[in-house]
Amino acid sequence: LLQPREAFEYTPAELSKHVELVQNHLSGDVILLLSDLTAYNRQRLIKYKTPFIVPRNQLYLPDLMIDLREHFKSNRGKKKENLSPSAQAVLLYCILKKQYNLLPNDLLDLVPYSRMTLIRALDELACFELAQTTFSGRNKLLSFDLTGKELWQKALPILRSPVKKVIYVTGHILNNDNFYLAGINALSEYSMIAEDLLPVYAVEKDLYYNLKRDARIEEMPSMDGAAAKIEIWNYDPGILANQNRLVDPLSLYLSLRDRKSTRLNS
Predict the structure, then answer these.
(1) Tens of pLDDT along 23-75?
(2) Can you say how many angstroms the Cα of residue 197 is from the centroid of all Cα atoms in its chain?
(3) CA-to-CA distance for 199 and 219, rounded, in angstroms?
């Protein structure tokens, strides 16, 4: 049995490819073990002839037997505590850009996500009852009932800090298009608060690890001797950053919300 860590992050084609790769190294059969499965994804896995099991719900073993059940568990009954990074990025984009009715294709050229990831993000926003999804022809349309501040306040309890990890680094930091001013330093640009002496930058996690792998930056054990403090984000800060390469104010608030600081509290 092959169980993905986060099945919703993979397309049926990707899941099928993983099964094939594992199968090539084993003598026995490989079967996908999934916690839930939508009707669409079930059809795609069957098209690829990929065996799968959803315990107490569905079974598809083309080499042995077929037992397909039409009962699909509602994702609303398994609601997560927080939005995924992609869904949060889409929501913040809609609030900041005041886009409250849109199709997945409207975002393809604006955010670095595949169409399938965007569709899942729209479904997630509907699952949390932040928006509604309907169909415009064959395309899924997302519509928000609330807008602006009201939408932000309703979503706030399920939004989380975009910061995955904080580190100190030295190396090629300045004039790097992958870095965006963040933390207290970004807040000082939006307000009258004084900036930190050590610059703070945000970078998307995959971009950071690529820079580290290419030896363009080096991690430091502490801030002593560091050139900058780096916040590794779960989504690309450039999606929402302004023209001055500042992280957006909503993500900035989320990144600082849980920080204990007399400067922030004042």
Answers:
(1) 888 877 888 888 877 777 888 888 888 888 888 778 888 877 666 655 544 44
(2) 31
(3) 15
